[in-house]
Design a protein that fits this description.
The structure is a single chain. The protein has 13 helices and no strands. With about 240 residues, it is an all-alpha fold. Helix 2 packs antiparallel against helix 3, helix 3 packs parallel to helix 5 and helix 11 packs across helix 12. The protein is globular and about 60 Å long. The two termini are about 35 Å apart. The model has no long low-confidence stretch (mean pLDDT about 85).
């Protein structure tokens, strides 16, 4: 388990997946439902960070049911955060914000913040959801999530929801050339470094389709027809 989690932290998803599957099988053979559930969550984290939100969602849902059965609120909060991250990946910022809010409320109730080593990407994804919503919508969704009972939050997390939300486009950030938004600058910088749409999606924890939409907007604002031309402008303005 430890080796698998270290590999996950380093981005070595193949090693993490192999080690955690082996640990899952050991826990299953020992008849340890809590251990099985923990390995299920860890595997979900691997799939999510490796750009497979469908498999991650399935595993988080399985883990939610297992931890609900053993009444483990600490791990339930982790699962809620995981499903929230899947929602960010699927361009569902309101859903993600509600789930992050529910998880935060639960963690406060049990006095157990997320471990520092695994806090950064949750904070990054919450920040992504915040950027995709106007201030009123974000506050409303966050408040709704924090007001959920644990059972309501679990039921909400288990709802099948795969369609991207329709949200207002982000306002251009002051100081960026060509009226680019913060997210567009992030996408452009990674594209200029040579990353593919899939790699940009994994890096920013968004879907490849969302990357494509951002690139379309970037090309229009820059008045260019291609990645290469956009990359030249990114280098010129030190956006890499």
């Amino acid at each position: 388990k430890v080796i698998g989690m270290v590999a996950l932290g380093k981005g070595d998803y193949a090693t993490a997946r192999s080690q955690l599957r082996e640990a899952w099988e050991i826990m299953d053979e020992l008849g340890d439902p809590r251990g099985v559930a923990k390995m299920t969550v860890a595997l979900a984290d691997v799939y999510l960070n490796d750009g497979d939100p469908v498999s991650a969602q399935e595993l988080y849902e399985r883990a939610l049911t297992l931890f609900q059965d053993v009444e483990d609120k600490w791990w339930l909060s982790w699962c809620l955060e995981g499903v929230a991250e899947v929602a960010v990946f699927r361009a569902q910022p309101s859903r993600a914000t509600r789930l992050f809010g529910a998880a935060a409320s639960l963690r406060e109730a049990i006095g157990a913040p997320r471990p520092p080593a695994f806090r950064a990407y949750c904070e990054r994804d919450l920040a992504t959801a915040r950027r995709q919503l106007d201030a009123t919508s974000f506050t409303k969704a966050r408040t709704e999530g924090r007001a959920m009972s644990l059972q309501a939050a679990i039921e909400y997390a288990l709802e099948q929801s795969t369609r991207p939300e329709q949200v207002s486009p982000a306002e251009p950030a002051p100081g960026h050339p060509y009226g680019l938004s913060d997210r567009e600058v992030e996408v452009l910088g990674l594209v200029a470094e040579g990353l593919t749409d899939g790699q940009v999606a994994r890096e920013l924890h968004i879907s490849p389709r969302t990357v494509g939409r951002h690139l379309g907007s970037i090309y229009r604002k820059l008045g260019v027809p291609s990645r290469a031309a956009a990359a030249k402008i990114a280098v010129k303005h030190s956006l890499v």
